[in-house]
Amino acid sequence: MNTVDFDYIRNFVRDQAAIVLEPGKEYLVESRLQTLAREENLNSLDALIGKLRADPKNGLHRKVVDAMTTNETSFFRDFHPFEALRKSLLPELMARRAQERQLHFWCGAASTGQEPYSVLMLLAEHFPELLQWDFKFIATDLCGKVLARARSGRFNQLEVNRGLPAPLLVKYFVRQGAEWEFREDLRRRVEFRELNLVKDWPCLPLLDIVFLRNVMIYFDVETKKAILANARRLLRPGGYLLLGGAETTFNVDDAFERVTFDKTSCYRVKQA
Amino acid sequence: MIDLERLIEQANELAPLPASTVRLAELVGSPDCHLEDVAELIAFDQALTVKLLRAANSAASGSAVPVSTVQEAVTRMGTAQVLALAVASGARPLLQARVPAYGLNEGALWRHSVAAAVAAETAPAFCQLDVPPETFTAALLHDVGKLVMGRFLSPEILGFIQRAHEVDHLGQLEAESLLLNVHHGELGGLIAQHWNLPPRVVLGITYHHNPDQGLDVICDLTYLTNQVAKRIEAGLDGRKFDLVISPEVTERLGLTPKTLNNLCPIAASRYTQVSRRYNAV
User: Fold this and answer.
1) The domain containing residue B223 runs over which residues?
2) Which of A20, A223, A271, B45 has the least C-beta neighbours within 10 A?
3) B205 within domain boundaries
């Protein structure tokens, strides 16, 4: 891939989704976009980039951004944050909101749904009464294609092997041919929507927990600042922000303070 | 980049292990495993009976007193060794194959598998915890996913993986995950599931490169045995290979730099002794 084409794609995905591609990532662009070129019946990567340049708003631009988005995810990813939810965050928030019996969660990089569904399973296992509350779980992602898969609740054997304990698989999933389908009554509790974290955010309710795990790593500092400021405005007093293990608000948005639960760091807005 | 559905299909189409081996794996993995049950099961499998008696009476078994019954042989070798022998016997034809995409000539994957199994056999004396009996089987089969993954790694994909190594210094597992959305450990776990092997064997195989994610000591042990196997092979080839075990795994297994240094030569010596048993030389 030549430098001109690489720079074009770099700038394109940066403008569209704030994804940062460092020099040297040509191999990643080639590997992801060659697959897309084949799917689009184009005979080369050059042809794909040519088509994109000729008319950047012909629908292909969305597919290019989708192809360049990393959708790595798994059930109960990193394990410890879910232990923190079970042992500390949820009991604390449920006690705080016991009067109004209302809790709102948002997962901002839901990918194919493993994270929101993991939380739903945790609630069903340990806090089933919460599902009788005014409980809302909004799950968003940039990519419409992965959201469609998330809504279907269907996972292949490799996906259910990633982090999902066998007893939960049997209890919450139904085998559908070669796939496993997440139980419909729980699936309905998640509202999936498209949302690009780096564009204007649509209306979201005030939130008790914001999951923005393993997504900030793809952004530059200015983008991180903007996203954290938006998330901060949506958090209710005492609400929590959960980031990935390699992510922090430190030196990015110091209006947050870190709260540690065993091996998990969470963040909440500092009280004046 | 690759068709995951086809990959899963091919993993599920690998020839199954013999039914008696699968039953044996279930027995050995169960908390109330009795030697009598294991012996009874093996007695119905003539080929395995012959192999077991031969192994129990070999010089490597360390006893001058011959055994003549299956029960005696099982008692002498231990259930885990017996299972390793059965799985080795069933999986050997598969693991002998060439896997050019991973630079493995005919027999190379098998030798590596046996070296890892021998490391699993040696590890209990050095680890400060109970080594699960399924460790031997997980170690022996830890790279079985390469058999199927190798069929999908075209020269173009191999080129991208190579560049991920060079540019981003990614290991094999990270490069496969980034570029293919699946790695050979996960695929191996899928094959072990298809073979109805015990869940802990599946876990050990799946997470043999990233044991922190497996949340089970068998993942730590399978990771360790893979590294020790590489060291054994490097020693035999006269290559230098620094054994680097993650501090988290070292701590969880109760190992120290000294015990790790002691483990390797003992495992290597044991490998030389037993590799004939597994036809690995």
Assistant:
1) 4-274
2) A271
3) yes
Taking the Cβ of residue A11 and every Cβ of chain B, the question of whether any pair is shorter than 8 Å is answered with no
Spatial separation of the C-alpha atoms in residues B263 and B250, rounded to whole Å: 13
Tokens of B125: 């004396």
For residue A162, the chain B residue with the least C-alpha distance is B186
pLDDT in tens, chain B (281 residues): 678 888 998 988 888 888 888 888 778 777 777 888 888 888 888 888 888 898 888 756 566 678 889 999 998 888 777 887 888 888 888 999 999 999 999 999 999 998 998 899 899 999 999 998 889 889 999 999 999 999 999 999 999 999 999 999 999 999 999 999 999 999 999 999 988 888 899 999 999 999 998 989 999 999 999 999 999 999 888 888 888 899 999 999 999 989 998 999 999 998 887 776 666 54
ipTM of the complex: 0.85
What six digits make up the tokens of B213?
């994610």
Compute the nearest-CA separation of A231 from chain B (Å): 28
- Select from 1.10.287, 1.10.155, 1.10.10, 1.10.3470 the CATH code of A3-68: 1.10.155
- CATH fold of A80-154+182-269 reads Rossmann fold (3.40.50)
CA distance B183 to chain A (A): 10
Query: What CATH number did the domain enclosing B104 receive?
Result: 1.10.3210.10
Tokens found for residue B241: 């290979």
Residue located via tokens 């006690």 = A95
Taking each helix axis from N to C end, the angle separating B35-43 and B70-77, rounded to the nearest 10 degrees, works out to 130
Cβ-count burial A59-76 (b if 16+ within 10 Å, e if not): ebbebbbbbbbbbebbbb
* Predicted model pTM: 0.87
Q: Which chain A residues touch B190 with a CB distance below 8 Å?
A: 157-158, 161
